[in-house]
Design a protein that fits this description.
By secondary structure, the protein is an alpha/beta fold. It folds into two domains: about 140 residues, Rossmann fold (3-Layer(aba) Sandwich), CATH 3.40.50; about 110 residues, HAD superfamily/HAD-like (Rossmann fold), CATH 3.40.50.1000. Helices cover about 35% and strands about 20% of the residues. It has nine helices and 15 strands. The strands form four sheets. Strands 5-4-1-13-14-15 form a six-stranded parallel sheet, sandwiched between helices. Strand 10 and strand 11 form a beta hairpin. Helix 1 packs parallel to helix 9 and helix 3 packs parallel to helix 4. The longest helix has 13 residues. It is globular. The mean pLDDT is about 95.
Amino acid sequence: MIMDLDGCVYRDYVPTEGAIEALNRLRRLRVRVIYVTNNPETTSEELAERLHSLGVECSPDDFITVGEAAASYIYSRSGASRVLVIAGNGVREYCKRMGHEVLDMEEWDKAEYVVVGADREINYRKLVAGLRAILNGAIFIGTNPDAVHPGRDGPEPGSGAFVTIFEYMTGVKPIIVGKPSKIIMEQALKRLGMRPEEILAVGDRVDTDVKAGKLIGADTALILTGITQEKDLPNIPPELKPTHVFRNLRELVERLYT
């Protein structure tokens, strides 16, 4: 199973209804779960620690973040590279782990890649650096296209909002590595050691989670605890209709694994 986190397991790290019970039941049933997140701010170790604190058994190997996916993708293309990061600290951390040189904003002219995602410290200096680096020929990587992100008190700006700024300024389309891209999903399949037809892709968004599962040929489950709500179901395009729809993760486990 490929499981989303934000909006599915929790919102701003507050568990959704029945999520902890459901995840522990899946573990007892020996259902292998890989958590795949478009959040560029965190690392697998931090996520494992957070889920542990909520009462879920897991290890860092059970997570693939968009930061890890971006750093791995760059390495697979070009080896260790010079990267300008305009995104959360998770992207920066994985680029360093992968052996990439993470540049200061003033070093934009050295950049071989620019990685853009949600950045709570975005400022004019970063906008200028990213703009100039991309126009200078650096390869433009977007973490993911999510316009909004489910926060505890309501929606917050998602990575797609930041990526779009640079696409608009430069006229350059980014390479997206997070969901719904096959890039991060294929990394998850490799980690699981399974084929797409053996996988259930679970998440709270039709436009990223469900689409990502469909692009790799997996069954999909939409959980109504995040961005896509019950009122939105009649408007889902036929090509994005999920295999299953559940109110929460508890209902998913009760319906599919009992």
